[in-house]
Amino acid sequence: MAAPHAIDVMDREGMEAGEIRTDSLNGDAKRPPFGTRFLTDPRHVFQHNAWDNVEWTEEQEAAAKKKVLENSEPLPTEKQDEFDCRANEYWNDFYTIHENRFFKDRHWLFTEFPELAPKSYPGHESLSESADADDTQPGGLEQEHNNEGSTLPNMDAEFPGSSSSYRILEVGCGVGNTVFPILKTNNDQGLFVYCCDFSSTAVELVKANPEYDPDRCFAFVHDMSNVEADFPVPDESLDVLVLIFVLSALHPDKMQASISRLARLLKPGGVMLLRDYGRYDMAQLRFKKGRCLSENFYVRGDGTRVYFFTQDELNEMFTVAGLEKVQNLVDRRLQVNRGKQLTMYRVWIQCKYRKALSQLPDTQC
To answer: What pTM, to 2 d.p., does this model score?
Structure first.
């Protein structure tokens, strides 16, 4: 693997997790899957730009808890309300300034979430043992789409992508760093991709991208925290829902209702995929006093907000929404800036939760 030109996570607390910026001279952006590179000798820490499944010492975790506690005094309520009311403005400003230059395309998606890759759906292996999957190791999900005995919505009504056989929605799409890799990689004619964002500026940038194809994609503005807002698709019409570093941007009080509303959009057997910030991630520990909004919830310098999850918190949200656990793992990575000889501990959580297949009523006498 080529040496990175720089890992810019130090420039902004909310830098995209998993992003690797490579030396522009050779353009080598290939990366192994999470969980396959282990640091066995600390003397070799600068040999690679990232290490997987890094175990924290008790002292390290205690220091992280202390750091969070030191900066845990929340801002006044009126200030918190201001950030909540102006959330749309702050995200529009973010995309107006950075356009499509801040995040890189997420090519790692197909390693971590094979459901997004070609031929990962209808006609393939079932998910009969998925609910018992190891919670600590990454793994793919071959969805079961045998709908015998399940009640599906009436799909006769016309809506964008209504004739498609496999539908993916990304919520919080930004400028398309997930959507466009999916469209470029997955050329299946039955695929249709929906994407939405809170920021109208971001959605306009998606539509202005030369790779945006309205025959295969539909971008729209949507506030996922507004559970009364309509979607352009009916309930139980989606195969996959993607949430990549978006749930953490919501106010914690609005998260459960938002997940429950999204769960209604999934077909029986459909899956919700999430990757987001974990408790004591480097970004959380770098927040200074005066940035805390509430417990584990912070505001960045640009006005955007971020929450840091535990596995249990996410499991409870998905379970209350009626979804079954397929995967819920914590990914502790040690990122390295070899040029500056810096080490940076990242903590992310990756989840896959499935909507159960409906059962036929018991007709036995």
So the answer is: 0.77
